[in-house]
Amino acid sequence: MAKVRPEKVCHSVDEASELIKHLANPNRLAVICYLIEAPRSVAELEEDLGISQPTLSQQITQLREAGIITGQRQARSVTYRIRDQRIMPLVHALRMAFAELNDLRMEQRRAAAQTSAEVLPDMFD
Questions:
Q1: What is the CATH number of the domain that holds 25?
Q2: Which NCBIfam families match (predicted)?
Q3: Nearest CA-CA partner of 18 in 87, 96, 88
Q4: Is residue 9 part of a domain?
């Protein structure tokens, strides 16, 4: 005879598992990490994260359908923000556990500055 788990526990486990599944995709996790910092337009997400527009649209659709993010249309642009606040402590815990989940914009700026510093001396020689 199979053990019967309390319904309340099963529901919570299933809901938590679904939320974690959405974090399991690297592109969705990157979008969520970035939106935690501030609301962003699709163009900003595409440029800053380096995710192609078709892939980004697919991931945004999945996050929106899951209720994790929400979008607000402003003229021809849509700005997305975190809707499900339960995602916040999960992402913060991931940031604590994995140093690689730092602000991507800061990493890109450092890389661009390093590239500029390497290119500039050659231009003046």
A1: 1.10.10.10
A2: HTH_metalloreg
A3: 87
A4: no
